[in-house]
Amino acid sequence: MLLGDLACLVVLVSRARRRLFAVPSVFGGAFVVLNVLGMAANDFYIGLALFHPIVGATTILATRPGRWLGAGLVACAAILGPLT
Questions:
Q1: Whole-number Å distance between alpha carbons of 13 and 81
Q2: What would the pLDDT profile of 50-79 be if each residue is shown by its tens digit?
Q3: Which of 17, 20, 47, 70 has the most CB atoms less than 10 A away?
Q4: Is residue 81 helix, strand or coil?
Q5: DSSP 3-state helix, strand, coil percentages of the chain (rounded to 5)?
Q6: Whole-angstrom Cα distance, residue 6 to residue 10?
Q7: Rounded-to-integer distance, Cα 77 and Cα 19, Å
Q8: How far apart are CA 73 and CA 10, in angstroms?
Q9: Are 12 and 59 in contact (CB under 8 A)?
Q10: pLDDT tens-digit profile of 10-33?
């Protein structure tokens, strides 16, 4: 699932002008968001379960060619989330 998150984040910055700067900054921002969700939910793993659909939904809404990737991540999170 984390590899799917990384792929969605790379698709999000694929149209940026300065990819060399955009990719590390989006990974850093996602790490901060993941930690904030973990602290807000009082458990890192619940925050991680919330993080996957957020990244997928952002990919669906923000990118045209990567919508299928975001939809796949949301579907995997919906199916595999309750199992963990």
A1: 26
A2: 899 999 999 999 888 878 888 988 998 899
A3: 70
A4: coil
A5: 80, 0, 20
A6: 6
A7: 28
A8: 14
A9: yes
A10: 888 887 788 788 888 999 999 999
